[in-house]
Automatic annotation (TrEMBL):
Top-level lineage group: Eukaryota
Protein name: Peptidase metallopeptidase domain-containing protein
InterPro entries (alphabetical): MetalloPept_cat_dom_sf, Peptidase_Metallo
GO molecular function, one term: metallopeptidase activity
GO BP: proteolysis
Domain Peptidase metallopeptidase: 21-166
Organism in which the protein naturally occurs: Adineta steineri
Amino acid sequence: MRVNLLGYANDDQISDLVFERDFLWKNQEVTLAFVNGDQEKQLQFRRIYFQWFLSTHIHFKEVPLNHSADIRVGFGLDKQSSWSLIGSNSAFYSYDIKFGKIFRDHKKTNYPSLVVAFNTQREILHEGGHSIGFNHEHFHSLANISWKKSFIDGSMTPDLPHNYIKRNYLKKIAPNKSLGMFDT
């Protein structure tokens, strides 16, 4: 058994995830609320998202939206995009979809910190991993990924702004800020 950022892992794979130490949850109990979605969507989300219980020290407690939840979940709110703030950033920031801005959210309002476009297992687990502090494997400084020049300069994908490419693909996390080689 390997020791990792979340204590003792039940699953060896989790010890190889890439994370940003500054954004790991310090609290063992993290509150979660739904911004929208019917009971069926919320139940499906719970069934999948709470699988993170199995290999982390985090205990999720669902609360009503007006109780200042740490993680605020929205369904299909952002033009068929799925995303999540990384880890404990959710407790301090929210995302205003209308204006496309992350803002300091002292009151933890009804703005989301995690959005899934489609309520699928892949999207919920992927964004859920981000919400507890994990990041993409290509951010690891030892990942040794070679990107095509046409991708880096944006000519391959003109619909993606260069800042988006830099932020979501080219960013590197120092070895002392992440534990494993791969985000599985």
